[in-house]
Amino acid sequence: MPDSDPLPPFSAPYAPDDATIAARLLGDSRLGADREAQIDRTATRLIEAIRANDDPLGGVEDMLREFALSTKEGLALMVLAEALLRVPDARTADQFIEDKLGQGDFINHETKSSAFLVNASAWALGMSARVIQPGETPQGTIGRLTKRLGAPAVRAATRQAMRLMGSHFVLGETIEAALSRAQSHSARGSRYSFDMLGEGARTADDAHRYFESYARAIEAIGKTAGARPLPDRPGISVKLSALHPRFEAVSRARVMTELVPRLVELARRAKAFDLNFTVDAEEADRLELSLDVIAAALADASLAGWSGFGLAIQAYQKRAADVIDYVDALARRLDRKMMVRLVKGAYWDTEIKRAQERGLDGYPVFTRKAMTDLNYVACARKLLALRPRLFPQFATHNALTVATILELADDPESFEFQRLHGMGEALYAQLGEDRPEIAHRTYAPVGSHRDLLAYLVRRLLENGANSSFVALAADNRVSIADLLRRPAQIVGADHKAAHPDIRLPADLYRPQRENSRGLEFGERKALEALTSAIAAERKASPGTVKTSTTEQATAAVSAARRGFIRWNATPAQRRAEILDKAASLLEQRRAHFIALLQSEGGKTLDDALSEVREATDFCRYYAALGRKLFGDGEAMPGPTGESNVLALRGRGAFVAISPWNFPLAIFLGQVTAALMAGNAVIAKPAEQTPLIAAEAVRLLHEAGVPAFALHLIQGDGAVGAALVADPQIAGVVFTGSTEVARSINRTLAAKDGPIVPLIAETGGINAMIVDATALPEQVADDVVTSAFRSAGQRCSALRLLFVQDDVAHRTIEMIAGAARELKIGDPSDPSTHVGPVIDAEAKQRLDAHIARMKQQARTHLAGEAPAGNFVAPHIFELSDAGELTEEVFGPILHVVRYRAERLGAVLAAIEATGFGLTLGIHSRIEDTVEHVIDRLQVGNIYVNRNMIGAVVGVQPFGGSGLSGTGPKAGGPHYLARFATEQTVTINTAAAGGNAALMAGME
After folding, report:
1. How far is residue 386's CA from residue 329's CA, in Å, rounded to a whole number?
2. Which residues pair with 238 in a beta bridge?
3. Residues 336, 304: contact at Cβ < 8 Å?
4. What 3-state class would DSSP assign to 800?
5. Furthest CA-CA distance within the chain
6. Residue 116: pLDDT band by 50, 70, 90 thresholds?
7. Which partner for 89 in 296, 479, 806, 998 could form a disulfide, CB atoms 3.0-4.6 Å apart?
8. What's the confidence (pLDDT) of residue 698?
9. Which DSSP letter does residue 242 get?
10. Pick from 769, 777, 710, 802: which is nearest to 923 by CA?
């Protein structure tokens, strides 16, 4: 009987220590000598079958052997496969083909395989490479006859090569075609699980379309499923992220309300046909949410008595064993049987990068492949022990893994193997001959060749890496003995469990500095701990701030001038230690500063946490840089008997004027840079965010910055103007509008005293260019993030989007649909994506611009905002880029279509704005990317990613032209601009001769 008490939510350490896990796994891994010998015999037979395979058509293994991903040809082929079939126009296709075929030696490539798939693809690519030589695309000037006669043939041949590859991965372009093809194998007892291809949903329409696709597929599969009982029945795999456009931890309440009923409905339909219904695995940050959705859906009474519901578990995740325990407990609680597909995992590189970017304590996945293999077998043992409540489905193409499981298992009808369509055919054919009682299921993708692209590249990357068993097993140069080495042997010892060349996120920038600590919102305990701490801080009174007078501003400058000599004399090492301590204090008090950033700055949780991290990084980066630049000076070359040293020292009293949009990070970035350089600082924050600045100054004083070296002046623009006009100041660092920067520049130039530096970072009409080779889903993600995150109130935010006309309709539609799914509201709510604009004046300006655009432009999106200082995302299409004449500082995106042959005009339009802060490029054509980079003088260019969130010391930030003076904040040249240079030359021979030289005489 089911237990009426609900199961507690899944919980396990997100990124536990590798060595701790390895110690447990290594201790349990060894079998007896006889059993290990049997594994060797079985695995050897399977490997020999793989190598003896003479399938005349060929398969993925043949393609990977022919075009290894370690070669230029392999990489070019991967990019071609990923993008070519979605390019609708001939011009872009020609440029793309030339770009990729020029990167490998396809003309002289000698095929090593007799397989038709390989030979046909190699022939088509080689022919294409011969016809299209470098410079012979429409943008070239030679070979016009070849272009005219050859280009259509080239396009056709190359596209056909890609389709030929794709056909071997996809069972059918429709579920009906796939079922028809599967029927021809059903007589041999093959089982199938159908996967409807496609990216995760970005829009509500996407989610609805995927739901209908799954529902139609279930109906079609069910009608042809026959009468055999589970588990010997076909199945379908569903992705939760395809069924909801905001499948993310912070949107949990919405996901549970909207997605669970959809999943239950699909499961009911699958139950009606007694199918295997598998929920596919997602990335690690979605694991807890996925299990919440699965548990809620499975608990629905309408699914009682059905054994077909299942899920996939990834062995490369360190929590895999915990997930198995949870699933078993869930099945027990509900008195159900479940099917569990054990996979190794396909998003490894993404997981590593995400953990590094988010500054986590560790990685949620193993960093060594051998640890994944070791964990896979351990999880297999666990699943086998939990039969019959759980029905294990072992998805693997690794002969050693198959042989090990066969040795561990009994009762061949109580589990099955799985393989990807187009892979592992020789292995499982041999297994079928040797052990006909062992079932295996083919995981079969279904969809158009366009939908295949992302899937195909992921499979190629997963199985074509040099370390993958598929790649090694197909290579006769690798001995079978090497392939039979056990994962435990390869790992060696628990202290070797982690990859030596993959640093922990905290150590990413060592030895220079420590990375700032972040948080994974997908870890429930960590998110709850942070939000609870923020709520406690919010209850405390934030205090008040007094506005300074111009007289107080003048007095602060005088005091700073007096304090400068003492602070400049403080050793650079000591100044750096103070900044490092400030960084530690920031991390200790991040909840306090997040609460302030939310209440005073209107920051969402994600933005506020990122800002605390950026401020922390500034402190540590400038401390590390300062130790190097402001130490003993640099010895210069010169004649004997003479010492020449170049040293940096502070300038004097430096004024730092910071904006409201990054009231902590930019404020502290300016102040700490000036302090590290030996200057005394008068900090003047934006009048909208005085409390954050006051708390930041208090923290710096606590860290050890003397009061005489750092002075805080609060007030409006008049106070700032008084500081700039003061004849005693030695420099100004400013972030804000171009107009104010010009005013500061004029004021400084008008003074008769020393010529002092102005370090200014202003805004820009930041553009992004999207051509037809770009992946629409990635574009939608990056545009929505770049244009609407932080309510569009970033200097780097996207303002002007250029989309190639051939793909503009679909791209704009997807962007608008994705933006509609953003939640606008209270920034203290973790589920909020877009908070308020800074004040009523800003809202009024933006509302006025929106009203004008609704009259003058085509509206693609006009969101609705709640009462208060909120402005919803808007998207307007302009007929010409020149219609946007100024930076619009809010969540408003302007779109312009362009024809491929008019790219030059697009670049001219961007250049004509006079700004040069950030630029985005989405293209798979490297020549196009390089051309744009060479043509435009823009400070920060981002290719195939979003264009905000510059990381200190990684993406130094700042522009040129109307966007600022440089040098870049968070870069290696920034500190020197706050300093003066001093050369000291000493005649070391002045005291009677050059003793050092004479001592070295023969």
Report:
1. 10
2. 279
3. yes
4. strand
5. 108
6. very low
7. 806
8. 97
9. G
10. 769
Q: Which of 597, 636, 628 is nearest to 615 (CA)?
A: 597
- pLDDT of 881-916, one tens digit each? 999 999 999 999 999 999 999 999 999 999 999 999
| Nearest residue to 669 (alpha-carbon basis) of 454, 258, 970 | 970
Nearest to 661 by CA among 463, 794, 537: 794
Structure-token pair, residue 632? 């003993």
Q: What is the mean pLDDT of residues 349-357?
A: 94
Tokens of 655: 């004024």
Mean pLDDT, to the nearest integer, of 462-483? Answer: 78
Q: What is the pLDDT of residue 151?
A: 60
Taken in order 396, 378, 349, 291, the sign of the CA dihedral is positive
Helix, strand, coil in percent for the chain, rounding step 5: 50, 15, 35
pTM exceeds 0.90 for this model: yes
End-to-end CA, the chain? 100
C-alpha to C-alpha distance for 343 and 237, rounded to whole angstroms? 13
Q: How many residues does the chain have?
A: 1002
* pLDDT recorded at residue 188: 53
SS3 312: strand
Q: Which residue has the tokens 């250029």?
A: 802
Distance CA 586, CA 593 (A): 8
> Which residues are tagged catalytic?
761, 795
* pLDDT tens readout for residues 807-833: 999 999 999 999 999 999 999 999 999
Asked if residue 791 lies in contact with residue 871, where contact means CB atoms within 8 angstroms, the answer is yes
Token couple for 66: 């022919």
Count other Cβ atoms within 10 Å, centred on residue 24.
12
Task: Quickly tell me which residue has 């929920």 as its tokens.
Answer: 279
Find out whether 851 and 629 touch, Cβ atoms under 8 Å.
no
pLDDT digits over 546-588, tens only? 999 999 999 999 999 999 999 999 999 999 999 999 999 999 9
Q: What are phi and psi of 304, to 5 degrees?
A: -65, 145
The sheet carrying 979-987 orders its strands as: 634-635, 642-650, 979-987
SS3 state at 374: helix
Sign of CA dihedral 952, 953, 955, 959: positive
CA distance 46 to 403: 9
More confident residue, 556 or 64: 556
Whole-angstrom CA distances from 120 to 114, 123, 471, 906 are 10, 5, 21, 39
